[in-house]
Amino acid sequence: MSTSAIPSVLFVCVHNAGRSQMAAAFLTHLGGDRVQVRSAGSAPANTVNRAVVDAMRESGIDISAETPKILTAEAVHSSDVVITMGCGDACPYFPGKRYLDWQLDDPAGQGVEAVRPIRDEIEQRIRGLLTELEIEPAA
Question: Which residues are catalytic?
């Protein structure tokens, strides 16, 4: 882990408009100030996917103000855990970092009905990650 007592997690997908935004929102919501959360994309979109925003709102989490961010080497370097979600070879690799690759369907171009199962799978994976990080999820 980092020199900080708080672990840092970076979620990366191509557009930073769907999967990585949902994962970051769930980890922020459930981990609170006990974990530092970042998300980024190798080719960020202009806005977060509307169906993703709507699906997250159904879970009580508002990500409507979020904006896609560009992936930087600094973001990877300053994270303890890097979780990729289909960013391919665009993700920088730094020795000593923990990398996880979550194979998840891409919500791009999908309606909220198709996004819900992706959202629910991401939430379950986040809960598992919190257990691994020894962080009790918020109620």
Answer: 13, 87, 91
Check: CB of residue 85 under 8 Å from CB of residue 23.
Answer: yes
The answer, as to whether pTM is greater than 0.70, is: yes
Q: Which tens digits make up the pLDDT trace of 28-60?
A: 999 999 999 999 998 999 999 999 999 999 999
Q: In this structure, what is the dihedral angle of CA atoms 24, 30, 34, 38, given to the nearest 10 degrees?
A: 0
Alpha helices in 1-138 (DSSP H): 19-31, 50-58, 73-77, 112-132
Q: Please report where in the chains the tokens 């962080």 appear, as a residue.
A: 135
HSE-up of 122 (CA within 13 Å, CB side)? Answer: 30
Nearest to 42 by CA among 70, 2, 10: 70
